[in-house]
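Progress note, sequence design subtask.
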């Protein structure tokens, strides 16, 4: 075995856990697993299969926590691999009699049977299901759409917390800038760190002009790279949408419980208080202007976000209630407004269906 030191947050946590079984399992689930596969499988030319070995008559599936761990355990052997998450591995486990051998021969080596796998904690984060599905399907458009809907976490080291400040220090690496979809994902990769939470609108409109790649969730099972050119295209698109917000557009607020009906089930009706859009308006200011607060209202003063439906047509001078519901016209759009007034385009209604921005 060659010399080894932990290189990821998960490996450092495994080493710190010592012989504590619960701490070891909790540390393991925070990072990705590297599963050896044939070069043909790595290139997508054949099914991945499972790299296994037999010990005491029991089949063991081999896995590692980093390329450095592979090199230390299998010195001098070229190894191609696929990256998997622990929840995905458990969900697709091939045989209950098999065991999982992680980092064999290292100080952080583990061997888990099916009972151990069943006891692994779930590190899923609310709202990440679309991103996980997009990453596993290698669907670049779906990845971008999921990113647009997420609050984004940017680690910071400088005093300024303003993306638009020329002195803002982006977390650059040799391959791009690291951005995360949750605090949990950031901690998986870098441990505890100071950060700011931003919308996709704020991120893309302030993206560095030299166009580095956006590394989404690097060092985690939900890691994916988005080309810098794609980020700049999104910034241009957002700018065009903001310019298009004019007095000839109307909007109404969508109650939170109905948002999924539009996005997931193609709902195409709307009713409520029709009013003019106001750029940079917060959900609370919008509620107060339109008169949406009060007993029994689905809207609350401390809402983190609200979704509005916009469509062509001059807005009334004062908010006016539309009843019964009308059919959503082509070209209408759904926008998520955050508590700080930042805005994200969620979907556009085209050819009688809701289309995500990157589709």
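Output:
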């Amino acid at each position: 075995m060659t010399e080894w030191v932990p290189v990821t947050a998960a490996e450092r946590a495994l080493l710190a856990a010592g012989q504590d079984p619960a701490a070891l399992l909790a540390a393991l689930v925070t990072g990705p697993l590297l599963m050896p596969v044939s070069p043909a499988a790595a290139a997508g030319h054949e099914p991945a299969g499972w790299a296994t070995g037999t010990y005491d008559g029991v089949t063991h599936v081999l896995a590692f926590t980093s390329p450095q761990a592979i090199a230390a355990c299998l010195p001098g052997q070229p190894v191609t691999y696929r990256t998997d998450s622990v929840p995905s591995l458990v969900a697709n486990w091939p045989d209950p009699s098999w065991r999982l051998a992680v980092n064999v021969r290292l100080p952080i080596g583990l061997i888990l049977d099916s009972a151990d796998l069943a006891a692994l904690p779930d590190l899923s984060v609310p709202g990440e299901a679309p991103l996980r599905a997009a990453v596993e399907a290698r669907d670049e458009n779906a990845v971008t759409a999921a990113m647009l809907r997420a609050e984004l976490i940017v680690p910071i080291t400088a005093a300024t917390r303003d993306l638009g400040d020329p002195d803002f220090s982006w977390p650059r690496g040799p391959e791009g800038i690291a951005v995360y979809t949750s605090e949990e994902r950031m901690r998986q990769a870098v441990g505890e760190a100071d950060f700011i939470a931003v919308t996709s609108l704020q991120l893309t409109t302030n993206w560095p002009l030299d166009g580095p790649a956006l590394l989404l969730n690097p060092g985690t099972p939900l890691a994916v790279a988005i080309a810098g050119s794609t980020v700049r295209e999104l910034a241009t698109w957002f700018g065009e949408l903001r310019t298009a917000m004019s007095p000839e557009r109307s909007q109404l607020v969508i109650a939170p419980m109905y948002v999924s009906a539009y996005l997931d089930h193609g709902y195409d009706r709307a009713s409520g208080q029709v009013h003019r859009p106001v750029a940079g308006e917060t959900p609370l200011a919008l509620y107060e202007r339109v008169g949406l607060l009060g007993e029994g209202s689905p809207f609350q003063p401390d809402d983190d976000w609200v979704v509005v439906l916009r469509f062509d047509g001059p807005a009334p001078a004062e908010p006016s209630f539309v009843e019964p519901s009308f059919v959503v016209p082509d070209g209408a759009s759904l926008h998520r407004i955050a508590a700080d007034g930042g805005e994200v385009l969620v979907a556009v209604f085209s050819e009688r269906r809701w289309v995500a921005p990157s589709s």
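The chain has a mean pLDDT of 83. Work on this subtask will continue into the next period as scheduled.
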